[in-house]
Design a protein that fits this description.
This protein has seven helices and no strands.
Amino acid sequence: MTELKDRLRVDLTAAMKARDTTTVATLRMALSAVSNEEVSGSAARELSDEEVRAVLAREAKKRREAVEAFTAAGREERAAQERAEGEVLAGYLPTQLKDDELSRMVAEAVEEVTVTLGERPGQRQMGQVMKAVTARTAGRAEGARVAAAVRAALAG
């Protein structure tokens, strides 16, 4: 069993003993999502810590989107519940990059691609720059944020 999945199970047991219903529900949902991912596909397999983190990041993103939807619909109580679940999941994810750190990584990737191409990349080479930046950020920045930063860097 991977270290992160084991930590989720240990924390679930501790939350059950503490009667923390939000944490219990969130961790059960997270473990269920991990199990579903393990059995999807042609053969069952054990997920690595990185793959478990990716599943947790997907679930956290779902919570953020649900918060927006419930807030827009005027259902603050439900939005607060989703926000609390997102905070529980955030404890298992790497800290997100600050905007200045992301900008610095994008600038480094642009320079790297510039050296490879022999000229400054334009919008057409966005894929190459995105690949370089995504490798550096490794789950510490959402894809939409990275894409926006790369677009801004390539535009000017």
